[in-house]
Amino acid sequence: HTMAQYPITASVGHSTQDDPASAGKEAAERAVERLGPLHPKLAVVFASSWLDAPALIQSIRLVLNNVPLIGGSTAGEIVAEGPQNHSCAILLLAGDGLVCGVGSGENADLSPREAGQQAAHLAAQQLKGQRRAGFLMIGDGLISGYSDVIRGLQESLGTGTLIVGATAGDDLQFKSTTQVINERALTKGVVGALFGGQLSFGIG
């Protein structure tokens, strides 16, 4: 018995506009256009901390509607054209066999284990018992204790679930970073997407 394989399609949209609402709209529209007729199952945004997060998120959501969204502020953005600064990049993923759930945990500076547990628990609820493949995590780069966040994730997901991720930056200002979950901008939090369904997930 072999698991049926469904193709996963990805697209990227990018904007260098200074206005956060314009940048979010342009990046999201470009990503949607490149995805073609497919409906995205997940959106991931990486955006400079110079762009006001609430305005950026609102403009992205207006384009993508209720597509699950995670992301974080950066100290540089990477797209096919090369490394960028003060820009916004959005990744969209689509595929018939792909299921995604997103979740967040707050106060990762004070209660990192609980923050990891909460993010994973909320994401897992949305998979509704379907097969889990792997977890993509974005945290706050200005706090320590992510070994405890990972421990919390594993307590919710099981140690057999693959985990990969990174922490958000703030263009080397070292003041405050942003983690994005749907329509919300958090700080000192952890957000993540749990991938499931009929797909293989590998980490190197």
Shape: globular
Strand order of the largest sheet: 1-6-2-3-10-11
Helix and strand element order = EHEHEEEEEHEHEEEE
Strand content: 25-35%
Question: How many β-strands, per DSSP?
Answer: 12
**What structural category arises from helix and sheet content?**
alpha+beta
The residue fraction in helices comes out at 25-40%
Count the DSSP helices.
4
What is the end-to-end distance?
Answer: 26 Å
Q: Regions with pLDDT < 50 over 5+ consecutive residues?
A: none
- Taking Cα atoms only, what radius of gyration do you get, to the nearest Å? 16 Å
The largest sheet is: 6 strands, mixed
Roughly what is the average pLDDT, rounded to an integer?
Answer: 94
Description:
The chain is of the alpha+beta class. It has four helices and twelve strands. The strands form three sheets. It has a six-stranded mixed sheet with strand order 1-6-2-3-10-11. Helix 4 links the parallel strand 8 and strand 9. Helix 1 runs parallel beside helix 2. The radius of gyration is 16 Å and the shape is globular. The two termini are 26 Å apart.
In short:
The chain is α+β, with helices and mostly antiparallel strands and 204 residues long. The chain has helices at 20-35, 53-64, 112-127, 146-157, and strands at 9-15, 42-48, 69-74, 77-79, 82-84, 88-94, 98-105, 132-140, 162-168, 179-181, 184-186, 190-197.
List keywords for this structure.
single chain, 204 residues, alpha+beta, 27% helix
